[in-house]
Write a structure and sequence with these properties.
single chain, two-stranded antiparallel ribbon, mainly alpha, 3% strand, 346 residues, 3 domains
Length: 346
């Protein structure tokens, strides 16, 4: 319904004069906000596709987060057998955990591929205001509201209601990005394709990069994040203790870390050690860059060795001189492996 430019009163599309103030209505009166959205079926279709893509991504993130939590939690339980501590809380105890995981998931995929898995399935993609690939600032800002569905709803309302072309969230506008239809994706019955813009679709994994894609590198990074977050949830004082130790090193020279920091380090090395050995074995059995399985098992064994050093130190059995020596051996071994792997790859 057109609004009067003088008083703002909505009028019937057939009215020539405003029924409230009598001002002449322009034939090109512009509708805005929800009214414009309700009157444009293609915009409704675009938002429907975005909503479906959001639920698909929420499902993917939920499954992935659960698996990563299990993979990370099992090594911590193994460590509890040696540490007599069964009071661990999982990372799911972190407030807004699922929302934070979805932000990380969306930022990584949109930065690399221009779309999340859900968007790619439905034929959507994220572009910058200039029509190219979005940058880091753009993908981070536009996904911040995914921390919670209430924030996402507010983001939608703030973007749609004040606009005469309600096709973007508020953070889309703020980040200089927009979501468009790529011309591909599965066909949903009774849903019109939003021909806002067509461009070549981005693949989940570019075809020419399939041979170089290593899923374990992504999985290992996810495990690292989950293990670190789980430890911080159970020992939140670790962060402050770590920075205090760093400051003390700059002021008074080298000194041993506090017991709190050593215990957190013990759990970290135990978890990453168990996972390193497990991932190396799985990689070898699945023949996914099997040569790297040697490195991962080696890293896992050394992590367990460092955990043992810390454990014995806490019991007063010896100092950490052996730990320093093992660190030197570890890094020398990493250099040797990198050189050998580069030659083998060539």
């Amino acid at each position: 319904m057109p609004r009067c430019r003088k008083c703002g009163e909505p009028n019937s599309p057939d009215d020539v004069y405003c029924w409230r103030c009598g001002a002449r209505l322009s034939p090109s009166q512009r509708v805005e906000g929800l009214e414009a959205l309700l009157g444009d079926f293609r915009l409704q279709s675009l938002w429907a596709l975005r909503l479906f893509a959001y639920f698909l991504d929420l499902f993917f993130v939920g499954i992935l987060s659960f698996l990563l939590s299990v993979f990370a939690f099992i090594p911590l339980l193994v460590g509890s057998l040696f540490g007599d501590n069964w009071s661990w809380q999982g990372i799911w105890a972190l407030p807004l955990y699922l929302g934070l995981a979805q932000i990380i998931y969306s930022v990584i995929l949109e930065l690399i591929y221009g779309a999340t898995f859900g968007k790619q399935i439905l034929g959507l993609m994220v572009l910058s205001g200039k029509g190219g690939k979005p940058g880091l600032y753009g993908v981070v800002v536009r996904n911040l509201s995914k921390a919670h569905w209430v924030l996402l709803l507010i983001d939608f309302i703030a973007g749609v209601f004040p606009s005469h072309v309600p096709r973007d969230k508020y953070l889309d506008k703020l980040s200089g990005t927009y979501v468009t239809y790529s011309g591909r994706g599965i066909q949903i019955p009774f849903l019109a394709r939003p021909k806002v813009m067509k461009s070549s679709s981005r693949e989940i994994i570019p075809g020419d990069a399939v041979s170089d894609f290593d899923p374990f590198s992504i999985l290992n990074f996810g495990i690292l994040l989950v293990v670190t977050a789980t430890i911080l949830i159970n020992s939140p004082e670790t962060i402050g203790t770590f920075f205090s130790w760093i400051i003390s090193l700059t002021e008074g020279g080298f000194m041993m870390p506090s017991t709190v920091l050593l215990i957190s380090s013990y759990w970290f090395f135990v978890a990453m050690g168990v996972w390193g050995i497990a991932s190396g074995v799985i990689r070898y059995l699945l023949l996914i860059y099997p040569l790297k399985s040697v490195q991962e098992v080696f890293n896992g064994l050394f992590s367990l060795l460092w955990a043992g050093f810390i454990r014995f130190y806490l019991k007063g059995m010896f100092n950490l001189t052996y730990f320093v020596g093992s660190v030197i051996v570890f890094f020398l071994a990493q250099i040797v492996f990198a050189v050998y792997y580069a030659r083998f790859s060539d």
